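Render this sequence as a predicted structure.
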Amino acid sequence: MKLIKKFLHFPRILYIIMAIIIISFLFANLYTNAVEISKIEFIGEATLPRKLTFENIEIGGLSGITYDAKNNLYYAISDDRGEKANPRFYTLKIDLSKGILQNGDIVPVGVTTLLNKDNQPFASGETDTEGMALTNQDTVFISSEGDVRQLINPFIQEFSLASGKTLRKLSIPTKFLPNQNLKQGIRNNLAFESLTITPDNQHLFTATENALIQDGTAAKPNIGSPSRILQYNLRNNLPEKEFLYKTEPVAEILNITGRFASGLPDLLALDNQGHFLSIERSFTGLGFAVSLFQISLEAADDIHNIDSLLAVDSQNIKPVKKKLLLDLRTLDVLLDNIEGLTLGPRLPDGQRSLILISDNNFHSLQRNQFLAFKIKIESPIIRLLRRLIPSLQF
């Protein structure tokens, strides 16, 4: 009896801690590694000098980036279709040791030519390489948008990091491929810009920048576009699920020219449970609007068996959940054509870094722009502790 009385007089905080331990144990398998970004802070901008070359090749068209933590290097894919040089990716060093990013902190240290299945450089016009994701096998997956006008199909292929040689090619579902009457498939230059791999290296994700032709309209002022996220199982190299991602309408920014473009240029997997960062970018001829979202696939419907969203009642389809993390127009920075993002190393204070890059289109008025952020990533356990004990600081 005395033992029971002593137990009842334990401080309340001990009961809470014991409850947390029990709950954590019961739900560990369900929520392991599921994360959420609770804070983001801008820590600097850097641009490469205009017309900068490496090994006599102009650096530009940087459309996707991925971080190699083992070697503290970054790999950035160029979307040059072979007009400046052979399709390729660059190796970069980015110095974040001071906890900020500024001009001079980015140094090109390598360039790798992509080789086709015959071990030859791709022919000019054959590729439009946009997305890039590093595996744990010293290889990279790269996505190409193809060319609808020439009926050149998009692709997702794995390449050797060291040699650039093609190692394998993932099959693309027929609904994504353009046909001669242009009644189905990707829209030109609005296809597979994004590419990311889950931390466990089990799944790869890409997405169309805008809707497939048979799914709906491309993004317009006041009208978003129903894009598709495509999930691959890397254990069997097969596509297995698709999800509806609704892009935001085109942002109006002094649209005197009447020109506009908008879409989903990249995704970044945060965990193995379907949580990502996504970039949406709008261009209206006189400026860029860029937004960073946190997204979740958890409650989204799998639509891989639906060949056309226009042929069904799409209002009954549960899309990907989105939450605006940051409107980059709130930064004191002149934004360029932001198209890629990757997590970087931990900063001196222990928080994780995030890098965004722009595609300068090899245009004299645009820049190879790099934006750096400090992000706070929280696990479910930390979020639970915050709810139970709001006064605790983590």
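Summary. The first helix runs from residue 2 to 8. The chain has a mean pLDDT of 89.
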